[in-house]
Amino acid sequence: MTSVLQSQKVIVFQIGEEEYGVSVDQVKSIERIQPITRVPNTPGFVKGVINLRGVVTPIIDLRMRFNIEEKEHDNHTRVIIVSVEDMEVGLIVDAANDVMDIEMDNIEPPPEVVGGIEADYLHGVAKLEKRLLILLNLNKVLSRKELEELKTIEEGS
Amino acid sequence: MEKNQYLDMFIEESREHLQAINDHLLHLETNPGQKEIIGEIFRSAHTLKGMAATMGYEEITNLTHQMENILDGIRNGTYEAGTTLIDIVFEAVDHIERMVEDIASGGTGKADVKDVLSKLFDLENNGVQSEVAAVMEKPRSEESTFDDFELTVLSQSMEQGYVPYTVKVILREDCILKAARVVMIFDVLEQIGEVIKSTPPVEELEEEAFDSQFTLTFLSKESADEVKAHIFKVSEVEAVSVDEVVIDKPEPVLDDGNEEVKETAKELPQEQDTKKQASANKTIRVNIDRLDALMNLFEELVIDKGRLEQISADLNNHELTDTVEHMSRISGDLQNIILTMRMVPVEQVFNRFPRMVRGLAKELNKHVHLEVSGAETELDRTVIDEIGDPLVHLLRNSIDHGVETPSERIKKGKPEQGTIHLKAYHSGNHVFIEVADDGAGIDRDKVLAKAVSKGAVPEKGKENLSDSEVYNLLFSSGLSTRDEISDISGRGVGLDVVKSKIESLGGNVTISSKKDEGTTFSVQLPLTLSIISVMLVEVEKEKYAIPLSSIIETAIIKKSDILRAHNQEVIDFRGRVVPLIDLKKIFNVPKEPGQADEHYSIVVVRKGDKMAALIVDTFIGQQEIVLKALGHYLNQVFAVSGATILGDGQVALIIDCNTIIR
């Protein structure tokens, strides 16, 4: 959570009307959407797997992960390949088109609830003049423990 | 930095040399007289020492150096390579191994080796007494003569201020425990110096195979009278004479002999280096990661090739078609080469077994001979890396449970020494590894009784089980036929773990056994893990791969042939009732609208003896595919064991029949 860095480079992407950021260190590449093979018996937000240059890579729909209504993929849809704790996972986002330096001073702790997302997933919120950037805690987003929990919830329902 | 560059090489080569030493030591034990073997060990040790010294690993250098001294002694016939000596050398090798592994895992390679060092020193100075004695075929004449080595020792110790004495001890005629006296005399002498030789040899002295007198060659800094006084402290000694030894041979001769040894010691490693280089020209070491990277790139090429084929078929341009066809052939050959590059002989795994068997047999007081054949059989590197542990377990099982104690064996009219045959061979698309012992065999009743008591088998109808079914019970968890838990096996890690490990490698293991004739474990493994043959099937619009190794056959059945048994759809397949499993349901495949068919396409798969029939929509065909993991994130998906990339670049999931059939 805490960082000694004065500023942080983040990849900025969009889901719905909101802008999110993930640290550039965790991003391996940004891909266009491509055919996804469904993997049965996985949580709903796991869209399936793709062939990423010979490596089978799982894909998560961030909208569904955050319980936001699904949206048709279009020309702007991107897959951000992130690498967290040895895991390589692709995140489907509405659009990704910016890299930004964020001063640490501008980062504030997450508010209680932002756009329906559990504040748990957030590093904080960065204020940039008129924009508000939600910084994601990818470890939480990808946490396998939660994956298991979600699985049991789904099976239970 | 510069050191790091060589570190990997150092570790790799050290391991190789250690393995060579291990192997040759074992050979030496069975053929103690063979000078070439000692030479080989010496060379490996010498190279190892040199490398360790260059890399600055002092402990390894010291220990290897001391080991070399002993080996040198064996080579010169000073010591005989008996069990005690080899044990100590093995101990030293173990230490070095541990140090090298420490270095490999980022440590400093430092370890406390005082113990084994001092053992080696003792060896060097005293020899293993019984064995020194054994070297001298017959006790020579009363007047001790000395061989070259002894002379060397004598002259060297004289330089250090020791005086060599010939000590003649006569015990009283009525002395009852002569051997005890001898031990006591040796004890007092060791306090003030060193006994380097005795006539008759120590063995005979210990067995009281002497009259009443014996002669010792003894090194000490004490005066002759002092030595005498010490010996007289032991009771029942009749007379003692202590005379200084006069070496009448001229010094130069000694030096010559000594230098010769040194020279050969220097020459031999060089000789070996050149030999090594000659063979090294033909092989290079490649990191497995690089091979994997190459493999990945190659797969992309295969996928592009598929697209090109598609395009050329569409365009129907003659020249393009020719070129693409040629390219396909070449990429086929390329695939073969890349695959064979990953193949390594099982020797790599088998190598460490002789040593392990020796140690275990000793621990259990059994005589076991390990015969290895087919070590050159090749397997994929990924399989090799995984197969070691299961094999260790099977071998342990054979030694501990299989081979009887020497006395039992003799009672049964078998040779005292048990034999375990470790055999590897190719057959079709598989490699078989067998661990066969000539021991007691499996006690059917005992296994059954245990299984019944554990509730694994119902009391009723237990007699109906076939032998192989009973033996297979051994693979279920918690069943050990051993009554008492020994240190070797039965520590909770049972054959069930072996079985699941082997099955996770896509293989299986079977047991056959005959009472009092022995037990054979047969492990069947796929040649490679990275490429498997599958049957591609379609379920609605999704493609799945079913490993051919699990498939019994494919069939088309009429809907009217489906029966129901206890809420489960089943079919009658060649007289067996086989459950019918709808992949659509298992995989929640989204239903596409379409008319219902009167027929089902089924794939009959098996897991061990159990079978199931999977309903699919279409058979696409048989194909060799490259196995891919789903990644850490999706590490456990029900009924899916992995994925593969098809020619069109799409990912297809591989069905895990083992989890579907429970």
Automatic annotation (TrEMBL), chain A:
**A GO term from the CC aspect:** cytosol
InterPro entries documented for this protein = CheW (IPR039315), CheW-like_dom_sf (IPR036061), CheW-lke_dom (IPR002545)
SUPFAM superfamilies xrefs:
CheW-like
SMART domains membership: CheW (SM00260)
Protein keywords: Chemotaxis, Cytoplasm
PROSITE patterns with a match to the protein in the record: CHEW (PS50851)
- Where's it found, cell-wise? Cytoplasm
Coiled coil location: none
Q: Which residues form the CheW-like domain?
A: 7-147
* A single GO BP: signal transduction
Q: What is this protein called?
A: Chemotaxis protein CheW
From TrEMBL, chain B:
Q: Where is this region: Disordered?
A: 253-279
- Cite the entry's keywords alphabetically: ATP-binding, Chemotaxis, Kinase, Nucleotide-binding, Phosphoprotein, Transferase, Two-component regulatory system
SMART domains, A to Z? CheW (SM00260), H-kinase_dim (SM01231), HATPase_c (SM00387), HPT (SM00073)
KW Protease (keyword) present: no
**InterPro entries named in the record:** Bact_Chemotaxis_CheA, CheA-like_dim, CheA-like_homodim_sf, CheA-like_P2_sf, CheA_P2-bd, CheW-like_dom_sf, CheW-lke_dom, CheY-binding_CheA
* Stretches assigned to the Histidine kinase domain: 279-529
Q: Which residues carry this modification: Phosphohistidine?
A: H46
Keyword ATP-binding belongs to the record: yes
Q: Which domain of life is it from?
A: Bacteria
Q: What are its GO biological-process terms?
A: chemotaxis
- Biased composition of type Basic and acidic residues is found at 259-276
Which catalysed reactions does the entry list for this protein?
Answer: ATP + protein L-histidine = ADP + protein N-phospho-L-histidine
Enzyme Commission number, as recorded = 2.7.13.3
Identify one Pfam family in the record: CheW
| One term under GO cellular component | cytoplasm
Gene Ontology terms, MF aspect: ATP binding; phosphorelay sensor kinase activity
Name all HPt domain ranges: 1-103
Show where the CheW-like domain sits: 531-662
As given in the record, the signal peptide range reads none
Q: What class of enzyme is it?
A: transferase
Name of protein: Chemotaxis protein CheA
